[in-house]
Write a structure and sequence with these properties.
The chain is α/β, with parallel strands linked by helices. The chain is built from seven helices and six strands. Helices cover 30% and strands 15% of the residues. The structure holds iron/sulfur cluster (2 copies).
Length: 211
């Protein structure tokens, strides 16, 4: 389980200002354990966004997004026809899982943080480094902290070769994946945004676990 909390509303609003029609998808997987949970929060988010002129095409709560993103997406196909992007109220893993299976832009509505209890039990996902300030909005739904071997936030290191990471030829270069994804979404311009350095004191544990 990854603990997450909703981002400040104005930050979320900033993500959506260029989108014509937005669908809200809430993961119910960790709802009981997270502050940004439940139907009331989805209703509240919808109301607030509509109040600021965002066209919300629909909303739903489904789970578990981190493991069932593909089937959830196929269930929602009809609802998403007239939608330009999806606002995802879930942990970083849930957002990334959805981004992997959709061609639509996904916006993260939450920040993920370490859950010490789960970590101590060895039960945590390593595609989200639980940095507490999610940047998936700017990287096409692919986490640069875990997809890139060096956790680089502002582009590749220069060691990429044929799409592979210089650390290991077995691994795709995370920044190549991000670039390809942003190109596909026609959002390459977003990569010009400078991402501030992380407060690494908030983060816990390894970024990648190899067993
Ligand atoms: S940027 Fe990466 S590590 Fe930080 S919350 Fe998002 S997915 Fe997790
Ligand atoms: S080659 Fe790519 S994934 Fe590897 S460290 Fe450099 S930027 Fe990161």
């Amino acid at each position: 389980m990854i603990v997450f909390e909703q981002k400040p509303f104005e930050e979320i609003l900033g993500y959506l200002v260029h989108d014509e029609k937005v669908f809200i998808l809430r993961c119910k997987g960790c709802a009981k354990a997270n502050q940004a949970g439940g139907e009331a929060d989805v209703t509240e988010m919808k109301k607030k966004l509509e109040g600021r002129g965002i066209d919300i095409t629909g909303s739903t709560i489904r789970g578990l997004l981190c493991v069932k993103a593909k089937s959830i997406l196929s269930e929602l196909n009809k609802d998403l026809v007239n939608t330009s992007s999806i606002l995802v109220m879930a942990c970083g893993l849930g957002v990334q899982s959805l981004a992997e299976v959709t061609d639509k832009v996904v916006h993260p509505a939450c920040n993920s943080m370490p859950d010490r209890e789960s970590m101590e039990r060895g039960k945590r996902e390593h595609r989200c480094g639980t940095c507490g300030d999610c940047v998936l909005e700017f990287t096409g739904g692919i986490c640069p902290l875990t997809a890139c071997s060096k956790g680089l936030l502002n582009g590749p290191c220069g060691g990429t070769s044929n799409g592979k990471c210089e650390v290991s030829k077995e691994m795709d270069c995370g920044w190549m994946l991000i670039y390809d994804r942003m190109k596909k979404l026609d959002r390459l311009g977003v990569l010009k945004s400078f991402l501030e350095s992380k407060d690494y004191r908030k983060m816990q544990g390894p970024r990648r676990l190899i067993t």
